[in-house]
Amino acid sequence: MDIECPQCHARFEAPDRVAGRKARCGACKTVFEVPAPSESEDAYELAQPFEEVVASRPHVPVSPPPRPAPESSKDEEAHSLPVRCLLFVGYYIPGLFRPKALILSIICTVLGFGILGLAMFIALLGGLLSAFVIGGFGLICYSQALAMLLHGEVVMLSEALSELNAWQWLLFILLLVAPFAGAIAYITSRLAGQ
Q1: What pTM was computed for the model?
Q2: Domain locations in the chain as residue ranges
Q3: In the chain, which stretches have pLDDT less than 50?
Q4: 152: nearest Cα among 132, 171, 133, 128
Q5: Nearest 5 degrees, angle CA 95-CA 98-CA 100?
């Protein structure tokens, strides 16, 4: 008798005596009930409630239907490289395309760097402890701006950071460190030139 696995659609040869009993597919290990042949349903008595049928090779392998490709991959293939880059940026930094989040991020960035500038001025006057405290507030403002850009909505820093994925966290850290690394590189090059 020819049977077919309902899960992977693999076909097997099995003896007629297993009709109406449970069998295990040799390909995917799914347990299923073997349908009884229609002409001899009453001819078999089941002596045992379970008999395992394992075939080493499927008789006629039938692969499951292919899954349709996600719509986004079809769309991405149709776009040029600049459009794909724009889509990538739009996915990982959605706040760039949302005016409210973008405007508030710009305001927070300007405020944060203004506070950091004030902290550097106070440090030059000799108030190091005050400069560190004030600089911390500036860093928090700048972090809030980045978090709103990466989250895409106007939310508090802790809520935005809790919802970022791994790539967005990496971008957050890189964008947080980049201005300070650039400033240190600039100051070092100016001091080395003198």
Answers
A1: 0.53
A2: 1-67, 93-193
A3: 40-51, 56
A4: 171
A5: 100
